Amino acid sequence: MNDRVFNVLFICTGNSARSVLAEAIMNQLGQGRFRAWSAGSHPAGQINPYTIDTLRRLNLPTEGYSSKNWEHFSGPEAPLFDFVFTVCDAAAGEACPVWPGQPLTAHWGVADPAALPDSHVVAKRRAFMDAARILQGRIELLMALPIDKLETLAIQQEIAQIGTRLIEPKVHNVLILCTHNSARSVLAECMLNHLAERLHINVRAYSAGSAPSGQVNPMALRVLSEAGVDVSGVRSKSWDEFTQPDAPHMRIVITVCDQAAAETCPFWPGAPVQVHWGYSDPSRVEGSEEDRQRAFELTRQALAYKITQLLFMPLDVMNDQELRQLLETVAES
Q1: Averaged pLDDT of the chain
Q2: Is it true that domain 172-331 has CATH number 3.40.50.720?
């Protein structure tokens, strides 16, 4: 049995996000066979808070990381590295120090999740999770290589090729439609994204309307916020936005009001599975403000019930017919 431990260094300019995620993931998955560190050419001096948030959501340790200069690992007392990977383009283009151990090197570039504005909380958290998933996929490919049996040149070719894989994690996009895109479809969009993020499931929701009102019902925003759901960036928009050539390809389109279900839908890129989950319009409920809020809250909970069932479907391996049958079964629940 070979007890050799392979030392790995991940490099990014700031050493606050991607390289730290890679370090944490490899140390978790390496099981003693791989030991990882990270560093930066121009370290930020602190770990990005979204990095810590992502580690926490992945149930990985959140303590013991620091943003440090790569020169920390260029001295005679540094570990002898077997592999050095750059995970950002800027670091890949810079002249690296001489690493002890003459390691094999490769570029595993990942888009910078920290580049998104802090005001886009949901999108930024998702970008960090996407970066972590890409890095995890590449790390798993590295660990699956029979390193002890390959020649050095073959290993170099393999690790370079790994850097070209898993560029984008597979995402199943869901479009939710209602005529005015102000209440039911917005509730469904926000709940799906909220639950998918909490469950670490790569499903992404959008919503739109055939005749959008131009504003989201304030009561919809209230019940979502009170349920701890982020509503930043939510808006009422036309379904025409999702018919353009550069629109996301939808795996599923769900209508949640009868009027939208009866209308002739545009052509959706991706030829998605379409299904109807009809709900009464909570904005039509008369009575006190408390009565109206209760109607919106019940609609939110009912949608969340169906959405949870959707999220646990094996979307990666289901064909369209199987998916349609399951979605129609959920519609009746």
Answers
A1: 89
A2: no
